[in-house]
Amino acid sequence: MPEGAGEKLLVSAQGVSRVFIQGQTELQALAPTTCSIRSGDRIAIMGSSGSGKSTLLHLFAGLDLPTSGTLQWPELGSREDLRPGKISVAFQAPSLVPFLSVSENIELPLLILGEVAAASERANAALERLGLAHLADRLPEEISGGQAQRVALARAMASEPQLLLADEPTGQLDQVTGGAATALLLDWATATGAAVVIATHDAAVARSFDRVWFMEHGRLSSGDSA
Ligand code: ADP
Ligand code: MG
Fold first, then answer.
1. 187 Cα–ligand 2 center, Å
2. Is residue 10 scored above 70 in pLDDT?
């Protein structure tokens, strides 16, 4: 496998697995996996529904703990220090706070980061970047699912992370809108130097990424060995 784009090792996964236990049943959502993410990487993870893409992204984000193996963020620090800030996640499921406006939703992580003075301006800039400035004052229930997905992407960008993880960010978008959102995401990554990892079903979306990893039944069939 080709080496990652940058020098800085953002995420290092060594033999990382995740088993979910439900009653008497054990489900191995992620088989032991060794891979890494470096600064400037642009990786698309493809795989059918249930193959383990979201599980892997949640582990990368430090939102979940592996059942076995070692997960480290050498350039970013300990798991407690990752979010908000160094790693941003645009979730697959709806994730906007229902009683906050679109712009307030984007400001929220910035306020948690202590960026009080800049929060409003940065939220507006993120919305404008995605062509969504006209939605700033709406509540999440007043926008479409596809618009909400792009707002979640804007929110993830606004905290200027070193790694942005986007879980099927074009899942509710038509091909043209999805292609445009992907291009904006990659332009943003170029401008900021952030690494981007997405999960996607869409081969056309995956093609715009430098590297494509494949998941099948919890197995990552491609990924670097470092
Ligand atoms: P994908 O994102 O590729 O659709 P997921 O990572 O969401 O796949 O899920 C992988 C497998 O793990 C699926 O079989 C799913 O049902 C199971 N799974 C995911 N999250 C949980 C959970 N919190 N508890 C139990 N099983 C889960
Ligand atoms: Mg998923």
1. 24
2. yes
Residue 114 near ligand 1, beta carbon < 6 Å = no
Query: Could you tell me if the CB of 53 is within 6 A of ligand 1?
Result: yes
Task: Say if residue 2's pLDDT is above 60.
Answer: no
Q: Is the CB of 47 under 6 A from ligand 1?
A: yes
- How large is the average pLDDT for residues 6-19? 93
Distance of CA 216 to the CA centre of its chain: 19
Q: Is the peptide bond before 2 cis (omega within 30 degrees of 0)?
A: no
Instruction: Report the relative pairing of strands 211-216 and 68-72 from DSSP bridges.
Output: unpaired
Residues bordering ligand 2, an ion, CB closer than 5 Å: 53-54, 92
The DSSP 8-state label assigned to residue 132 in this structure reads -
pTM for the full model? 0.93
Condensed to tens digits (0 to 9), the pLDDT of residues 150-206 reads 999 999 999 999 999 999 999 888 889 999 999 999 999 999 999 999 999 899 999
Residue spans of beta strands (DSSP E) within 48-129: 68-72, 87-90
- Please count the CA atoms within 13 angstroms of the CA of 171 that sit on its side-chain side: 21
